[in-house]
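tool=predict chain=A
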Amino acid sequence: MTDLTGLEQARTKMTDAGVAPAAIETFTRFYHLLRAGETGLIREGDIDPLVDIPNRADLTISDDDASAALAQTAMLKLNGGLGTSMGMDQAKSLLPVRVAPSGAESEMLTFLDIIVGQVRAARQATGARLPLLFMNSFRTRDDTLAALERYPDIAVDGLPVDFLQNREPKLRADDLTPVTWEKDPTLEWCPPGHGDLYPALHASGVVVALLEAGFRYMCVSNSDNLGATPDATIAGWFAASGAPYAAELCRKTPADVKGGQLVVRKADGRIVQRETAQTHPDDVAASLDATRHPFFHTNNLWFNLEALAAELDRTSGVLELPLIRNDKTVDPADSASPRVVQIESAMGAAVAVFEGATAIEVERSRFLPVKTTNDLLVLRSDVYDLTDDYRLEAQALAPLVDLDKHHYKLIDAFTERFAAGAPSLRDADSLTVRGDWTFGSGVRAEGKAALAGDGGTVPDGATVGPDGF
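tool=predict ok
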């Protein structure tokens, strides 16, 4: 077997599946790096912290400049996730998260509904056309487009409302050939990580279409982050900066133990991104130290479309992003299934590609992702109010919620146990639940609220404190 046998098999598999050429070439580049023993690790000794960046709260952008920049901005939501970690089998963006503003309790809005509401409100307030696009996966596209049929006004003439991300084969860990899994052939494939944004944009022609329609900037964020609303002030700052690329960063709190961060590479002084998977085990403590690395990456990005188009054209969509090697099992739910390697990359790593890339510190309100049912409970609670312009406004500091994974990890089980609604969390510092508890209506959590034992029912109107209720 030659070194390229596995690569040739993978390329053939991708070609037969109709994967875009740019994605195949990107995979090929990463495969060679993987074969060469590249791990993608960024050692603490090779970098300095990124600490000196502007703060959105300190910006002085005129209303005219802000409006002019937003009028040239498009919004792109990454919408390829199925929410499989919560037991979902459709686009996570279709998960109900909040009651409609001034609506009946039965009017639960999904991520998608709220995103559309945010864009509609911004259009009405500013007069901007503000295109809204989604990068879907093969699994999320049909459901998402069907949901968008309720909003025919969201499309902007001449522009698509979505385009497809790519997929790639999982590789056997022992010989780096494409894995075969007859029990469920769909598990032979994986998404290439958010770094697939670039070959997908190149294949779709979306950037060129936006430029031809008169747009110059694009804001990219995850569809499960409802904090990433249209923001004219940041748009105005980004336009004035002249930067080709900017990343939004937040200050760390004790709850921020995961996620990428921007650091400064000592070798050339360039800003680069370090993901959790790129952190050496010996460097984890330093990477999490908020006194050394005060910011984390929100995955909200801004692009100058002309600079992005030039880079996509120069590289044919194959940006030289760092490799992220992700070791898994072919069936994530079966630890005995074959070990595989997933080749991934982070879209934020493009900060090292664009000369003059920059970053900005933003308020925590721009980072409200839902990765677990813990996050979902906080978002559904009275910690946030949903305003008439579909923004989530915090009414208190968000508590740290830790629900028993054995009973609350999957969305159906979670929904059953909170059928009467989320408890009040405004007066809670934290909520820790161990055991199988079903919550009644009007439950309040206070201080370091905790439930332990085998479980049971929390009565209607009960107050849960450090010693239960």
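DSSP finds 13 helices and 25 strands in the chain. The mean pLDDT is 92.
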